[in-house]
């Protein structure tokens, strides 16, 4: 109890429950493997560590239970791992005479990895019994709580469990506990002498709307207070590989919407009450549920919604996540981070020859992923999404916006009006020979349609106009 003496929870009603019940806590975040055998072997080591933590309870066991316990503890071939969680709960109940609380964090991590690696059915068959034996009709259980990034109620993994109560970030119950409330963040910043940074902190780490509570990302807040530097913390943690792989193989409509999200738009999406992990990870229509529950999207404010509707207005919550999407797309499709940095530095320095050369090198790598006859527009969208991520903070990135007598393709507007702005227009050439003409036509269009009207109205005088023409894996850039 001494650990909690100076904390608010110490004076709450919950302290009367502290230390009252035996608790089994397991996190399955790192339970992964390239094959089912590899995953199962890691699970055995994991269960061994769990049993070793409670080794002392053997002293009160009868001989039969002691043999079962030691088979797991000593990793015998005939150890019963599939029922090991239930058996441990039963043993703790007998030892303490109090029912057991079971807490399982990231329950779905091994199933998601199993789908990605091709042993989904074996994992489902195992974990269905592993979970249901411990959590259903178990007289030793006080209660259990599971957390994950997928809301699964139709899944085979829970077909044996009809006593589940599901609460998500879309529900009001517990909504304020999924993150830090603004008052809590202000109090923390004030305590550490950092309250003056609240607006910047809000811009980067706030924006999540869970139920009716607006919350900050606790991981990012704690790391920011520790480091004192505003940057992406949560979005840079490991575990994004699966998401990136799914997005990498997504259809063109997904990229259309992701571009709109990174441009700051909110979009209505259907979020189902439950689905299979297999469907979630292989169906473009389900990807928004994964992005929502993973924290990459959030519900938009002031949303009018019918009580029985599953349509939600979604958006990117904050600058941290918007930057993640930009970096992820640019690095994923445009090659190495080194080259993308060279590209952007060349642009900012006005070195258009280097910009053209580097962009051409990047395009060679990037275009190898796509069917150019069908997906050229998708490529440009990914290109703009990448620029948003790398230049955000120094520039306001706007695409396909009205100005003058038409809509320009891309504008990079400096936060400081005395710095240089960039206007870009893209054209596709049908021949290599026609690239110069197309690039000049794009440049001419910027002037003829007066795309710089809005920039001049904002007091920006230094504007670099750039015409870009693409032909296959080649690029031509002209400017003035």
TrEMBL record:
Domain AAA-ATPase-like residues, every copy: 1-158
Top-level taxon: Bacteria
UniProt xrefs under InterPro entries: AAA-ATPase-like_dom, PDDEXK_9
The protein's name in its UniProt record: AAA-ATPase-like domain-containing protein
Organism: Leptotrichia wadei (strain F0279)
């Amino acid at each position: 109890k001494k650990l909690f003496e100076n904390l608010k929870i110490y004076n709450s009603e919950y302290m009367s429950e502290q230390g009252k019940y035996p608790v089994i806590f397991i996190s399955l975040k790192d339970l992964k493997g390239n094959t089912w055998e590899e995953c199962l072997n890691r699970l055995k080591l994991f269960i061994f560590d769990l049993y070793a933590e409670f080794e002392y309870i053997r002293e009160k066991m009868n001989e039969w239970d002691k043999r079962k316990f030691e088979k797991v503890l000593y990793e015998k071939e005939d150890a019963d791992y599939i029922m090991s969680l239930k058996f441990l709960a039963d043993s703790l109940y007998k030892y303490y005479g109090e029912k057991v609380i079971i807490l399982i964090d990231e329950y779905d991590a091994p199933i998601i990895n199993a789908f990605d690696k091709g042993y989904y059915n074996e994992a489902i068959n195992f974990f269905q019994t592993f979970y249901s034996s411990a959590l259903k009709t178990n007289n030793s259980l006080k209660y259990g709580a599971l957390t994950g990034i997928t809301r699964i109620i139709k899944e085979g993994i829970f077909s044996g469990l009809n006593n589940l109560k599901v609460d998500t970030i879309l529900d009001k119950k517990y909504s304020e506990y999924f993150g830090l409330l603004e008052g809590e963040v202000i109090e923390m910043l004030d305590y550490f002498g950092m309250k003056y940074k609240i607006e910047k902190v809000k811009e980067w780490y706030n924006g999540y709307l869970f139920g009716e509570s607006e919350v900050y990302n606790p991981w990012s807040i704690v790391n920011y207070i520790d480091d004192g530097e505003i940057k992406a913390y949560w979005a840079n943690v490991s575990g994004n590989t699966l998401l990136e792989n799914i997005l990498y193989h997504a259809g063109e409509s997904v990229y259309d919407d992701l571009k709109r999200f990174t441009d700051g738009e909110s979009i209505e999406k259907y979020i189902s009450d439950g689905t299979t992990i297999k469907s979630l990870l292989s169906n473009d229509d389900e990807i928004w549920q994964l992005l929502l529950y993973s924290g990459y999207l959030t519900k938009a404010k002031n949303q009018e919604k019918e009580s029985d509707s599953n349509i939600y207005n979604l958006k990117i919550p904050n600058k941290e996540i918007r930057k993640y999407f930009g970096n992820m797309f640019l690095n994923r499709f445009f090659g190495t981070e080194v080259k993308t940095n060279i590209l952007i530095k060349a642009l900012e320095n006005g070195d258009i020859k280097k910009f053209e050369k580097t962009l051409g090198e990047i395009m060679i790598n990037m275009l190898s992923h796509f069917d150019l006859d069908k997906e050229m527009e998708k490529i440009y969208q990914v290109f703009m999404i990448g620029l948003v991520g790398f230049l955000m903070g120094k520039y306001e990135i706007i695409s396909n916006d009205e100005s003058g007598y038409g809509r320009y393709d891309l504008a990079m507007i400096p936060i400081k009006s005395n710095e240089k702005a960039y206007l870009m227009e893209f054209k596709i050439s049908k021949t290599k020979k026609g690239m110069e003409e197309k690039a000049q036509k794009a440049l001419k269009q910027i002037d003829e349609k007066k795309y710089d009207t809005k920039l001049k109205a904002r007091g920006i005088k230094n504007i670099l106009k750039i015409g870009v023409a693409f032909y296959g894996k080649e690029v031509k850039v002209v400017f003035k």
